[in-house]
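Reviewer comment 2.1 asked that we show a complete input and output for one of the modelled complexes. We chose the flavin-adenine dinucleotide case, as it is the one discussed in the main text.
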Amino acid sequence: MSRTLIELLRAGDEGLPADAVLTDPDVTSSYANDMASFCDAGTPAVVVLPRTVEQVQHVMRTATELRVPVVPQGARTGLSGGANASEGCIVLSLLKMDRVLEINPVDRIAVVEPGVVNATLSRAVNEHGLYYPPDPSSWETCTIGGNIGTASGGLCCVKYGVTAEYVLGLDVVLADGRLMSTGRRTAKGVAGYDLTRLFVGSEGSLGIVVRATLALKPQPPQQLVLAAEFGSAQAACDAVCRIMEGGHVPSLLELMDRTTIRAVNALAHMGLPETTEALLLAAFDTQDPAADLAAVGALCEAAGATQVVPAEDAAESELLLQARRLSLTALEAVKGTTMIDDVCVPRSKLADMLEGVERIADKYSLTIGVCAHAGDGNTHPTVCFDATDADEGRRARESFDEIMALGLELGGTITGEHGVGVLKKEWLAREIGPVGVEMQRAIKTAFDPLSLLNPGKLF
Ligand SMILES: Cc1cc2nc3c(=O)[nH]c(=O)nc-3n(C[C@H](O)[C@H](O)[C@H](O)COP(=O)(O)OP(=O)(O)OC[C@H]3O[C@@H](n4cnc5c(N)ncnc54)[C@H](O)[C@@H]3O)c2cc1C
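Response of the prediction step:
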């Protein structure tokens, strides 16, 4: 069976060249997991690295003919096991399809292949005075295909919105190998159902994205960052509410709790203030960022900030952002493994969320650090645990689940940006209910009747 699979993958005019079909188990096993390393994963039968749309079509036709599951992958920085291999699957890595095909300043669009790294696209469009806002903290490695697969957010989404807002059109290879184009490259367009939006966040379960048309913005002025220290996480959340209620539009509003601050210092010696309970980072990319920061600084003080320090220049601002971007990696270093919750609550419930997480950490005697895209209400309570300690692993999973339950109780969602993957499968049903699941399954069946695309994820 497996020899036939490999032979067919290489066969014909559109067959993959030998170096695009990896079969050495030592190599293929390294493609088994994304960054949620503790999630179950199968062993891939083969890893393919196509360079063309036709090759992707050939892979899908072969998979359909032999009924072999296919797991699409970008850079595998996902945090929910969404890109994990299933047993005997074809891992379809899009990393070699990494060309920026077009940047059009008049239409304000970019057309890219799925393997383009987020930061590469950002820098490329900057050269044209343009801006691609979605900026996950993993932006130096994660790909646009993966960003579309998970509907990624990031730091600047509080002002500019998430990936979904920037995907105008897609070319998608369907499970049976047909090529479908969705959406548009125009500023407006309402022809038919919005299949483009349906694919954003579909976690590789409906089709393989092989090309994306993305909306761009004019490049804003350089942002300036302010850091505010608080004696409690609740006071920092109060400041977030005051800032949003006051009508301010920060380009970033991020929170790090004490555990996260200490973890970042331990990893990168960044000199963040360790005695503080929470650090709020606010930024403005307006014409007069200093004036905006002064107004927001005053609101932080009114909420009880013990210190408010505006960055003096772009370099200092970038240093603060680097600290925030390192948060998840730093928390992973605390105990070797993390389960990263991604609960998003209405901003007005942020303080309740953080208070509840503290309670849950105490109940399970665990270290749970919280960093958050606070302006979006999107928290990342990160359960730090030793994966070799069975009891700690069990407590980690229970606390992780209890945090999601708390998020739903507060009117939130189990995932603001990381997706469901395998990690939150049971929780999707709790959030959307049986009718919601039934309709989602019907959509899945319409696109993928043999259930070959990323099986075992989402439902
Ligand atoms: C340190 C760190 C920080 C992070 N910070 C953020 C953050 O701030 N915001 C955020 O949203 N996420 C964040 N993430 C999570 C992760 O980086 C994002 O989910 C990212 O979008 C994944 O991109 P990827 O290329 O690694 O995709 P992968 O992990 O390889 O895949 C993600 C999903 O997309 C599917 N997929 C990939 N390519 C395609 C394709 N071409 N067609 C169809 N489906 C496809 C996969 O099957 C999978 O379900 C972070 C991760 C890390 C490790």
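DSSP finds 15 helices and 18 strands in the chain. We note this here for comparison with the apo prediction described in Section 3.2.
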